[in-house]
Amino acid sequence: MRKGIPLMEQVYKSNHRKIATFLSVIPGLGQLYNRQILKGVAFLTMTIAFLVSFWDFFAEKGLWGLVTLGTQVPRDNSIFLLVYGIISILLLFFAAIFVFIVFRDAYKNGERRDMGQRLNTIREQYRNLIDNGFPYLILSPGFFLLVFVVILPIIFVFLLAFTNYDLYHQWPAKLMDWVGTANFTELFGTELWRSTFLNVFAWTLVWTFGATTCQIALGVFLAVLVNQKDLKGKAIIRTIFILPWAVPAFVSILIFSGMFNETFGAINTVILDAVGIPPVDWLTNANATRLALIFIQTWLGFPFIFVMVTGVLQSIPEELYEAATVDGASALQKFRNITFPLIMFSIAPILITQYTFNFNNFNVIFLFNGGGPSVSGQKAGGTDILISWIYKLTMTSQEYAIAAAITLIMSAMVITVAVWQFRRTKSFQEEDMM
Amino acid sequence: MSMKRQRIIRLTLSYLVVAIMSVIILYPILWVFGASISPGSTLSNFSLIPENPTWAHYREIFNLNESSYMIWYWNTLKICIITMLGSVLTISLMAYAFSRYRFWGRKNGLIVFLILQMIPNFAALIAIFVLANVTGLVNSHWGLILIYIGGAIPMNTWLMKGYFDSIPRELDESARMDGAGHLRIFWQIIMPLARPMVAVVSVFTFIIPFTDFILAKVLLRTEEQYTLAVGLYELVAREYGSEYTTFAAGSILIAIPIAILFLSFQKYFVSGLTAGGTKG
Questions:
Q1: Where is the ABC transmembrane type-1 domain (chain A) (predicted)?
Q2: A83, A245, A265 ranked by CB distance to B134: nearest
């Protein structure tokens, strides 16, 4: 029921809306029938152009390739066919949206004719398009980029996890096939894979919680410490404390890998030597490497938290502390009941991203010691986390399909935990956010 | 009296913590500087202030015949600046649409962005490697730039949208009354007011390609195309630790400009991040 139109006139006088919608089976004809010549010709041209440029692509490579992954070597390259298949599906998805818009437009305008209303002139249509279409117009460049460099690879990994793509199923010698859930069965069914996966996963969790919690604790502690009113030289102290953040992480990590070097590094030759502790084999003993890694990530990561918390502390009203002092609260009580909850309330969403960041923190693991030291009877190094293990499986041993399966499991976990956490934090539920 | 003593103890302990932390932070930086002026290529007889300090490693780095360092520097700057400009433009436009317009697909779009921001763009490492092979973008800077821009979109759009939301709507509504168009409001009202957040997003999107190692390592193949991260890693990794002193000189030379840039931007971080990221 449209507002402002007398009830009598809402009775349809003709059947244009149905005819126009039906004619839209060929996009553009419905619009031509509604005597919107320019729009109709435009839709028709777009349809023809789309079919002419992509027909061969769909028929010969795209969809056929996606189903079969090729039948004949060396003519068919399974990987190429998979990519073409995904692109075809994406294009068809866009085409479906286009067709839906065309149908809707034909129906709406037919309905107006049925009710004896005037259709928009070309000028009005143009204004309408610019006005209502504006958000779509400015979204589209970023959207297309996102589809092709972010979403396409994700779909690709997802599909790859169900194929047998590895060193032995590669173009030009061999085709690859769909294998269903065989990769997952192998990952959890074979002793070697399962024990490696569980070890890597366990260390990934310890690493994520250990390193992130250390860096957050240190950052909050130092921010509160430096924020004391009677502490002098705040500006210079803060500048020094931010330095680890300002030096590019890959530089710091490589520097540390030199400092922890067992023969020439300063940790063994200078620092431990000075206190009389015998040299530690930082790079060849897995536990020592783990300790060093957590230390390094704490060093790298605390300044970010420090800066955030410093910002939050400035915004806590002084009256809260004054009232607490009057009530005779101790410094610890003030921290526990005022400062800490307020900090947590403000930075909780950022803390979650810190955990997910370390879960995927490839740089520090790979640059420090290449995920090593190597462990006998395992397919991963002693300090490999999931992401660095995936890198090795891809770049070194070419176990693409298994690596894709692990990626799939890993992404599912990160998303589940993060979404669950985000829903619990308050800022997500605010009306205005969505 | 006891109040005063308590205060002295508290402050002394605080300064002690600050001093210890400063040593832990500054020592590696001084150590690498010491390494960069040590003679020879390894650090077998290393001390913080070497006996025969030498600038040879710095000279070597600036010599185009001996080292590709300057080429890597140029590559990195080129990639970072193009990525930054491209990202800030697309991200601002997308955030403007999400913040100011109500359109079909808006809510679902935001949820998709939220999920995508949790999947780092190198989680699809295998795909990126294979796709680059398929599309011939291996060893090309443009491939990297496109991936960096695409990967920066989800998270930074959320950040920027949060900030745009905090700019009063009355401002653009009254401009609309005065006859300003969509783009004019964006350029002349929203963007100037969002300057702190634009600064934050600029630095973020500049830093990502600068510090990224994994994507650059996967895509770039020849020494002339390397970025600093890959190039310096190769210096250290080539024969383990063999070029450590040269690497140290290279590290000092990158760290200084980045640290200056960073420290001069830091005041925006606090205000920008707390306002856009958390609405605290």
A1: 201-419
A2: A83
Q: Which residues, numbered 159 to 198 in chain B, qualify as contacts with chain A under a Cβ-Cβ cut-off of 8 Å?
A: 162, 165, 182
Give the predicted TM-score (pTM) of the model: 0.83
What is the residue-wise DSSP string for A179-205? Answer: -TTHHHHHHHHSHHHHHHHHHHHHHHH
**Euclidean distance between the first and final Cα of chain A, in Å?**
29
- Token pair for B87: 């990202």
Q: Are A193 and A433 in contact (CB under 8 A)?
A: no
* Superfamily of domain B66-275, CATH level 4: MetI-like (1.10.3720.10)
| CA nearest to A345 within chain B | B280
Checking if the pLDDT of A211 tops 90, the result is yes
Q: What is the DSSP string of A371-432?
A: T-SB-TT-SSBTT--HHHHHHHHHHTS--HHHHHHHHHHHHHHHHHHHHHHHHHSHHHH-GG
Distance from C-alpha of B119 to C-alpha of A412, rounded to nearest angstrom = 9
Residues A325, A319: Cα–Cα separation, whole Å: 10
| Model confidence at A403: pLDDT above 60 | yes
- B48 vs A contacts (CB less than 8 Å): 270
Q: Do A390 and B125 touch (CB under 8 A)?
A: yes
Which parts of chain B register pLDDT below 70? 1, 42-48, 121-122, 238-242, 266-280
Residue % of chain A over a pLDDT of 90 = 18
Can you give the pLDDT at residue A279? 84
Among B21, B233, B274, the residue with its CB nearest the CB of A241 is B21
Domains of chain A: 15-179 (no CATH), 184-432 (1.10.3720.10)
Q: Count Cβ atoms within 10 A of the Cβ of residue A124 and give its class: 0-12 exposed, 13-18 middle, 19 or more buried.
A: exposed
- Whether the complex's predicted ipTM surpasses the cut of 0.90: no
User: Which of A19, A16, A30, A18 minimizes the C-alpha distance to A102?
Assistant: A30
**CA–CA dist A370, A392 (Å, integer):** 9
